Each structure stands twice: as structure tokens, then as C-alpha cells.
Amino acid sequence: MMPYEIIWKNKRSISTAKIRIKAMKIAVASPGVVSVAIQGEEKNQLVVTGEGIDAVNLTKLIRQNVGFAQVLSLGPNEENN
Which Gene3D superfamilies does the record match to this protein (predicted)? Predict the structure, then answer.
């Protein structure tokens, strides 16, 4: 299986540290996740990298615990191409 990168965006324009930390904790607890990073101008994008990640389940968990989340991109990790 090839490593994949998933990018989520929080709809809120102001993303507090508490929200980012909660989303990161949910992501790192998911099976197959190798790394999690925050990016974007407003620091409201969560980049999750790993193998065999269930993007649907992870999005569902983030929506239930943090609020609105949207998958912006799902594809092979650029570093491994």
C-alpha cells in the first residue's frame, strides 16, 4: 500500500489552539497514521499522512468531536513519488 496524504480544512475562520490540538489527537489515534501537521495561512488545515487510513471514518470522528471538517485533498504522498 502506498502512503497517502489527506488534508482537512476547518470551516471556522478563527481556529483556536484548543480546536487544533483536539483534531490532532483524534487523527494520531487513528490506525495507519504516520504523521499529522497543521498548515495554511489561518492554521486551519490538518495534513494527515500514512498508509491504510480510513478517510471517511476519520472525517466523521473530527466532525463529531471538533465541528465541521472537509476533505480538501486525498492522494499519494508527494515525498514518496
Answer: 3.30.70.100
